[in-house]
Design goal:
By secondary structure, the protein is an all-alpha fold. It has one domain. The protein is built from six helices and no strands. It is globular and about 50 Å long. The model has no long low-confidence stretch (mean pLDDT 92).
C-alpha cells in the first residue's frame, strides 16, 4: 500500500521540479528534459538512483530521470567487461529496447490517428 503513496509523491516531486524549471527559470521543455536526464545520470553514477527506485517504484523508474540512470548503468556495466569501448556499447545496449518500443508505438499511432491542422 505505501509503495503506491511513495510512488505518487516521488513522481509528483520530480514533475513539480520540472514544472518549476519551466515556469520560474523560464527553461524550454527541451532544456528541462535534458537537465532531468543529466541529473538522473549523475544520481545513477553516484549510486543514489537505484535506492530511490527501490523506495518509490514507478515514481522513480518512469520519469525521464530514469533514462539518464539507465544510460549510466549500461555504460558502467559494459565498461567493466570491455573497457572504454564498453562505455559506448553499453549505452545503446541497455536503452535500445525502450527506444525501439517508442519508435514502433509512435509509428503505429501515426497510422491510426490523423493529426489536426
Amino acid at each position: 500500500m505505501w509503495i503506491f503513496v511513495w510512488s505518487f509523491i516521488v513522481g509528483g516531486i520530480i514533475c513539480v521540479i520540472g514544472q518549476i524549471m519551466m515556469d520560474v527559470f523560464k527553461l524550454t521543455p527541451a532544456h528541462t528534459m535534458t537537465t532531468l536526464v543529466v541529473v538522473g545520470a549523475i544520481l545513477g553514477g553516484l549510486g543514489l538512483y537505484d535506492p530511490l527506485v527501490k523506495f518509490a517504484g514507478a515514481g522513480a523508474s518512469v520519469p525521464i530521470m530514469s533514462f539518464g540512470n539507465s544510460l549510466v548503468k549500461g555504460a558502467l556495466m559494459e565498461a567493466e567487461k570491455f573497457g572504454i569501448i564498453g562505455v559506448l556499447t553499453g549505452i545503446f545496449e541497455i536503452t535500445s529496447s525502450g527506444i525501439s518500443a517508442a519508435i514502433i508505438f509512435s509509428f503505429l499511432a501515426s497510422l491510426i490517428f490523423k493529426p489536426k491542422g
